Amino acid sequence: MEQPEQHDLHFVIISDSVGDTARKVLQAVLAQFPSITVHMYHYPFIRKMKDLEPVLVEAKELKAFVIHTLVVEDLSEYTDSFCAAEDLPCYNILKAMVRDITEMTGQQPIRRAGALHRLDDEYFNRISAIEFAVKYDDGKDPKGFLDADLVLLGVSRTSKTPLSMFLANKTIKVANLPIMPEAAVPDEIWQVDPKKIVGLTNDAEVLNNFRKERMIAYGLSPETIYSDMDRIRAELEYAYELYNKLGCIVINVSKRSIEETAAIIMSSIEISDTTIIT
């Protein structure tokens, strides 16, 4: 099979804020070209012409792609004009959508640099949700179940903590509880609206592999009761019985990323009847 030709490409990212938007778009595109050698130059908080000009001169010297999210009009237009004059590929990521929304609504953009990252109510709600998730992780305090927006239940290695943190970044206050046959379920769980509870499960074989790897990472033998298949099946059966009694939604995470599971949860937490998503 013929090998793809090797290329070195330079990308200059310019933003009036932290530059995450442009960087993530570029990374998504570059993921489609794994054989390309990439040189990325990141210039955040560019809000004055005197700061912008040397960046564009460097982009010219590198013959770079210029990707920017500048919303201050004179900086944005100057960047676009400079790149056109120097024959540099230039991508003004926000321009087309801002233009179309303006035409459709008749409203003008506020042109405020860093507007997405201002310290608004959403920011503080996110911080509060993250602190909540840390405080009530792994069933540390059953009182958290009553104050949570969402309660995650699951046997060990069903992604409870990563999901809690991911959803906290969406400003959702999450408490989670590990499920095992020997441990009594806190009374508070039975007081939570089933619409706010999600039962997580996994395939027995996947759990077996995860748990063996965890034991090896700890420097222990992979063959323990923790990774025993009969034990895992018993845990899963116990969890399913609990979920049925609670009447909560059940999600199998075995073939899903954290992002996919979170998307399902966010669109399904209003479901009242027991629903199993495999």
From TrEMBL:
Protein keywords: Kinase, Nucleotide-binding, Serine/threonine-protein kinase, Transferase
Lineage top rank: taxon: Bacteria
Catalytic activity: N(tele)-phospho-L-histidyl/O-phospho-L-threonyl-[pyruvate, phosphate dikinase] + phosphate + H(+) = N(tele)-phospho-L-histidyl/L-threonyl-[pyruvate, phosphate dikinase] + diphosphate; N(tele)-phospho-L-histidyl/L-threonyl-[pyruvate, phosphate dikinase] + ADP = N(tele)-phospho-L-histidyl/O-phospho-L-threonyl-[pyruvate, phosphate dikinase] + AMP + H(+)
Protein EC: 2.7.11.32, 2.7.4.27
GO MF term list: ADP binding; ATP binding; phosphotransferase activity, phosphate group as acceptor; protein serine/threonine kinase activity
Pfam families on file: Kinase-PPPase
Function per UniProt: Bifunctional serine/threonine kinase and phosphorylase involved in the regulation of the pyruvate, phosphate dikinase (PPDK) by catalyzing its phosphorylation/dephosphorylation.
Name of the protein in question: Putative pyruvate, phosphate dikinase regulatory protein
Organism whose genome encodes this protein: Trichococcus collinsii
